[in-house]
């Protein structure tokens, strides 16, 4: 559509060091090993396609997809995402 501007995707992270590296284009000696995916994200941030913001670990919903969690935490995050357990009849 003409005249519409795409909104940037918001990426919520609980790692302040990763956020700093993604926003600061300065070369860091300790970041030599980072592969091209990181540089792609940095370019997207510079172009305004992605916004990176901090979110506390306790609020990080993505943990249920990336970490082994106890049942209570898994159910809590599942509920926060709006996923419900269906009872089969």
Protein model, in words:
The protein has 89 residues and is α+β, with helices and mostly antiparallel strands. The protein is 38% helix and 11% strand. The chain is built from four helices and two strands. The protein is extended. The mean pLDDT is 82.
Number of strands: 2
Distance between the termini: 47 Å
- Strand-residue proportion: 5-15%
Strand order of the largest sheet: 1-2
Mean pLDDT: 82
Query: Helical content, roughly?
Result: 25-40%
Radius of gyration, CA atoms, in whole angstroms: 17 Å
Identify the quaternary structure here: single chain
Which key features would you list for this structure?
single chain, 89 residues, alpha+beta, 11% strand
List strands and helices in order, with pairings.
Elements: E1 9-13, H1 16-23, H2 36-46, E2 50-54, H3 63-66, H4 71-81
Parallel strand pairs: 1-2
